[in-house]
Amino acid sequence: MLAFLLALASAPAMAALDASEMLADPALEARARTLAKTLRCVVCQNQSIDDSGADLARDLRQSLRARLLAGDSDEEALAYLTHRYGDYVLLEPPLKPATWVLWFAPAGFAAIAALLALRYFRRRE
User: What is the CATH number of the domain that holds 90?
Assistant: First the structure.
């Protein structure tokens, strides 16, 4: 049963990358896979393009590999995709004023929830 659940959980990741997408150069393919794990599938949102089976994720993987084949460094390839899709395509967007909401909103919501809970329990006493 455990083996079935593990196979089921890893099935989307195995199905995401088609063998035809892979690069012939193992070092270049390893770079592409590493970078793909840092990029967000804009359709799936909380999945990397390496794990996603969405058509747009496949297009992003192909675009990333094309940039690497053209001789781009890792930073240049990521900059190209970020310029095209915005910081949202990064699973860990940079900390800058435009992304403060992404970084600090969860902590803000947690603080508000804690204050509301504290207020609720104080009224009950």
Answer: 1.10.8.640
